[in-house]
Every structure is written in C-alpha cells, then in structure tokens.
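Prompt: For my understanding, could you write out one protein's sequence and backbone structure tokens?
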Amino acid sequence: MKNIKEDERLNVLNHSCAHLLAQAVKHLYPNAKFWVGPVIEEGFYYDMDLGEEVIKEEDLPRIEQEMKKISKDGKRIYREELTREEALERFKDDPYKLNLINNFKEDEVISCYTQDDFTDLCRGPHVETVKELKYFKLLKVSGAYWKADVNNKMLQRIYGICFSTEEELTEHLNWLEELKLRDHRKLGKDLKIFTIIPDAGQGLIFWLPKGVALKKVLEDYSYEIQKKDGYQFVSTPILGTRWLYETSGHWEHYRDNMFPVMKTLDNEELVLRPMSCPHHCLIYKSDLRSYKDLPIRYSENVIMHRWEATGGLTGLERVRGMNLTDAHLFVRPDQIKGEVAKAYNLINKAINDIGIKIDYIELALHDPNNKEKYHDDEALWQKAEDAVRKTLDELGIVYKEAIGEAAFYGPKVDIQVKTLSGKVITFATIQLDFLLPERFDLTYINENGEKVRPVMIHRGLISTYERLISILLEQYAGAFPLWLAPVQVSIIPVSMEHHMEYANKIKDLLEEENIRVEINTKEDKMGYKIRESQMQKIPYTLVLGDKEKENSSVNYRTYNSNESIELNLNEFIAKLKEEIKTKKINIDK
C-alpha cells in the first residue's frame, strides 16, 4: 500500500507526464489543440483535437519516442501567473483554452507551465525538469466528446501512466497484462459463458448454456438462503403503466434512465420496468394487513431494463437488460433495526460464500441543498436518516457517510466491493423508505385497531447477475470453485469403443447427485482432450480406461495440475459432495 507522500509524488509525475505527452503530440501534429489532461487513478489522459488526423494504437510508440527525446533534453519546467487579459492573449488561437479561461472565476489565479517550446494552462504542481519523466508508457487511445457532451465534437484521448522507477512501471505493466487475461469479456467468450449480438440490441446479453448453468447455480443459492431467512417469493410483470411510476416518483426522478413509453391500441401507456418496488407495493396493498403479519419480506428474480448510453456499455458490467434478486420488506417501525441487521447478515453470508471481499460500507444520505433530486419532505428525510444511522451505530457496523448519494425516496446502506481492476462498485444495498408507503397508501392495522403506515426496506442481495458474473469471471480468472463451476467434471474415455459404457455409468451417478458433468466424445488424441478440459478450466477431469473400469475407480486430475490420482468411485463422489457443500473457495487460481 502506497503512503500519502508516494501518492502525491505519483500524481505530480503523471500530471507532468500529461504535459510531456501534449508537447510530443504538438511536435508530431503541429495543428493539434488540447482540452484537458487530468491525473486519474490509472495514470493520466489528455484530450486533443487533431483536425482530420487520427491517432491509432500503432502510432503510440512513435509518440513515446518523441516524449523520450524531449525528456532527455532535461529542460526545466517553470510556472507563470497571468492576468485574464494576458491569458486570453497568450491562448488567443486556441478555442479550448479560451473556453477554460472564460469559465474561470473572476478572482481565480490563472497559471500556466512552460517546458521549452510548449506552454499549457495548469494549476500544477509539476516536477522540476522533464528529465524526471523517464518511466512512462502510453496505454491506449479512444474517443471522448468535448465536455463529455454527445452534442459536442469528438476529441481523441490518449491514456498513459508514469512511475518513479523502472521496476514500478514494469510491475504495473505486468499487472495490466494479467488484467487483460482476466477481462470478463475475453473469458466469457473463451469459456462460452455469454455473448452480445449488437444486431439484436446493444447492451442485451445472450447467455450460452454454460452461462445459464452458472446463473442457475447463483439463482438457486439465492433462493435457498432467502427461503431460510423467511422470504416469500413473488413474480410480477416486466411492464408497468406510466401511472405506476408517476405514483412511485420514479417518473419524475428516473425518467431519463427508462425506456420510452409504449402506447397500446387502447391508449394505455406502458414502459419496461426499471425496478420492481412499485410492483411489490401493489402486492402488499392487495390484501388487508395486521401488525401480526409484519414483517413481510417479498423477493423476486427480477428482469429489468434501464437506458444506458451506448458509450457506457461494458460487457456484463453495464447493460440495458439485467436480472437480479430484488427484495422489499414491509415492517413496523419497531422492527427496523432487527430487519436491517437481518438483511445485512444475509448479504454478508452471500458475499462470504461467493468469495467476494467487502471494501467498505457507505451510508448514502440526501443533499438538503439539492432538493430537485429528492422528494421534498425534509422532516421525513431526517426521520429516515436518523433511523438508519442509529441502526448501523447500534449494530456496530463501520461506515462512511456520503451526502448526495441517497435514492430519491430515502437513505441507503451500500455495500461496496472493489473489482480486480480497482474499480469500487455497489454490490448490495439496504434502503430505508418512508415515502413509497405514503404514495401508495400502504397500511396495516395496529394493536389498537388503527390504520398506520408500514416502513419499506429495499434490499439488493448480490448485485445483478450480469455484474456479479463479470466480477466472478475476473476474480477467479474463469477457474470457478467447484460449487459454482458451470461444468464440474469432464469425463474422457480412453477408448470410445471399450470405455464409453463405464463413462456413461459414472456420468449417470454424478448427475443423480446433481453434479454437472459432461463426456468428451470428440475423436481427438487424449493429450488434446485433457488440454481442452484445462483450457475450459473445469475443476475435475476424469480419464477412464481398463484399470478404472475393473476397479470401479476414477483417475482424476484437478484444474491446473498434472498430478493424476486414482480413487474409489464412491470416495470420489463423497469428496465432490463435501467440497460443494462447504463451498470451498480458492482465490489463487
């Protein structure tokens, strides 16, 4: 773990290297104009306008060479402070810099940094000389709209990274290579888990047989642990009326993330549902409820659709059609603490069983200075936030507060996990909601015979299955633990003529124990079949010949091992069952 001073040093290096990149590009492309070049977690980038010229990946080594040439010259980098008039004059031929200058506050200090023949607007700080910028690498090139607005011109963006030492750079580049091998999009294709067919719709996932098997394991697991925790399972329509989302408030606050309205022949307005909470409110309201009935915990395997910008679609991580285990709890006020604790413990169990580590817990609160983003009952907000904060404190759960990150209807507890690439994502959530019961007029009869409002708790368990499987593919590099593996056992008969009957017998026995198994019947050499099983990262590969047939045994090897082990058939089955039951996990695949 790098300390703060090391992080500050890296930030200065990377920011300075962004300017080195811009200077090199200006040498090679004299008409280039530059927008911004910030430091990011993964290094730096610079957005640039090259007119009609296009930089491709194969051009990056040439730019790097020019950067190294500039670095060897060792020119000093010096800072100037300019008046607004001086800045406008200095950059009068650059519309991008003029835009920046004109958007500075009146009292803001305008500074620029110069290294030899290149000057750029910048707050700094920078290294003393370009000679300090030795250990860098340009990583990729992409497009980026000016000011991130699709209505603006498309600029070119070059990404890079810079370190203090060659060893650090080499280590980072090796890590990036490992990330490429673990990219869930590559693994999903190689292991035949899923595919995306743009002609059928961007951001929509086609699950292949092995993907369906993996998804079914996760769905069944989710069902079982919720069932033990007292959840009732419901199923609601994939469509909802506009009225449904106007009533819930999603129409006002979430409309830009919803698919367009579809009008039926009788003028009913329907939309693909972006969430299931309004549907579950209607199920609750469909019957008279007593205080003795609460808590009521509804769970559903929900299919939802949300509109995501095309540029943001990323394999399974960000999609337009998604599937998740979604739950809504209707509770009495005195049950809030117990139900939040119960929901948190269930999420924690799932995360541990699947082998994912929590990075931190976040309490997302509303921003009282941004009233348009949230429902406008400030007293209700205070009540909800105080309730969830008190609950977390009493449970001893360590959390960070994040003002402005609440849902429009209430505060939420977000369980954040870090992906292999270092990106932090919300994996599971618990949200307290006093608003929707009010909007849908939900009630129960209390012990005094009076109608009162329940409190609603939204609970996401293990993210969407799309995002979960993307994380698991990358975390395990496709080599899933036995209990999750789409194919758990691959059987290879030595001879199709003499050993197929025994292979089928073992297959039947394993399937009776709900073990996912396949027989390799291809007319290939034995070595190739074993190698194929390893490439598909199947946990156990059985090779069956005369000896195994005579001894009622199996000869197996595990993934990533060349060791062959013979074991009695019954002992082998018992071994598999125990490993599946205990959900044995090995992260170091």
About this structure: The chain has 18 helices and 28 strands.
